[in-house]
Fold this sequence. Notes:
Elements: E1 2-7, H1 14-28, E2 32-37, E3 51-52, E4 66-69, H2 72-81, E5 85-90, H3 94-103, H4 116-141, E6 145-148, H5 151-161, E7 165-167, E8 194-199, H6 209-221, E9 226-232, E10 247-250, H7 254-262, E11 266-269, H8 279-286, E12 290-294, H9 297-300, E13 310-312, H10 317-329, H11 332-346, H12 351-367
Parallel strand pairs: 1-2, 1-4, 2-3, 4-5, 5-6, 6-7, 8-9, 8-11, 9-10, 11-12, 12-13
Helix pairs in contact: 1-12, 2-4, 3-4, 6-10, 8-11
Amino acid sequence: MKLIFITDHMKFSGGRRLMFDYALYLMKKGHEVSVLVEKKEGGLSDYIPAKVVPALSAEHIPEADLIIATSPKEVRQAWEAHRGKVVHFCQGLELVDLEQRISGAVTPIRYQGNGILKKLKIFKKKFEWRRKHRIFDDAYKLPTHLIAITDPMCKYLEDRYQRPAYLCRNGVDLENLNPRADWKPEHFTETRPMRIVNVGPIEVTYKGIPVTVKAVEMARARDIPLDFMRLASIAGKNEMGGGLTYNLLLNSPRREFCEALSSCDVYISNSTEREGFGLPAVEAMASGLLCILSDITAYRSFSSETGHCIFVPGDDAGATADAIEKIYKMPLSEMSQMRAKAITLASQFSHQKACAEFEQILEKINAL
């Protein structure tokens, strides 16, 4: 197949890296694969060979069997180019996120506050969010071929847009993500504090990271001995000035990321319903961590069984702190059982399997 992947730039995001991973796999399988970008800048600029074009338009996108894009903006650009069948690789529920912002259910950290200026700012911002919602919704309505990364996302798209969506669940790097060989259940103390980790940029609203930070501080106030670390591609504005109560590791090479993750005991994510798949949560399980996860559709879709993690209301720092305390007081046998279930669950999400499934879906679409 002749395949073209398009994206505006090469700044790091989990979704963009996954798309590039699939492109690399398809290259190795002998397909004719090109990656087109408008700007070759960002943390993924050396991740995959890419061609810079002045614009993602008909003048610069060659004929292909399939053109793959993931953001609504680039999906529309691919469609308007009329250079091949367009695959909309859906990795998140952008519309749900915007609807929650418009309703006030979710407020980005930079707009939070009770002052009159903050209220005016978010009042104006809601007009922009409504406009963006219409643009995104129109992109999803285009007669493209949908691929989604969770069962609930497939159902959501099929119900809303009345056309099929193929399922291709994400996979994790099981070759490099391994539980600590020397792990044993133990009680946490001042000399052996609970090591908690969180992943993602703090200013990405749907990650809910300010809730996690607050929960950790609440747990500290309960005299629970802990160390907190965050892994992110970029620092937030409030993280640049120093004085943080946690360790912040930025742009860690893959091996260092895996080692940092496996050195911890507990992973926390307070993501909102906008979360697409939640790959870091599965990576944490594969690394043998006990997980505290928001009770959202994406995380519930990992398994119909229970006991592999603790679910909490996503926006509730108090409930998240309670979950930290639960692990702190947890019997060692229960701790071992939860960890074993998490590792077993994660073992079902192979990256190689996901790559092969993505190729099979593209072949089906190409044959239509």
